[in-house]
Amino acid sequence: MSKRKQHAPEFKAKVALEALKGAQTVAELASRFGVHPTMSHSWKKAPEIDEEQVKELHAQIGELAVANDFLARKLKPWGVT
What we know:
Blueprint: H1 9-21, H2 26-33, H3 37-44, H4 51-75
Helix pairs in contact: 1-3, 2-3
């Protein structure tokens, strides 16, 4: 019984990009890269974006930007940049 083949993330990305381009069928890509067609399907699926988390991160970025501007203004008289 053989072990499963481990593919590098760079290889997976290359196969996924080729699949997304659509220039070749999944079967052709599988043959070309030596992988099962199901693998290229799973690699090209993008992770779903959690909108709530994105909103929280944007809010945090805004808070940090305000704090950064505030500190930059307060440190300016001392010549610190």
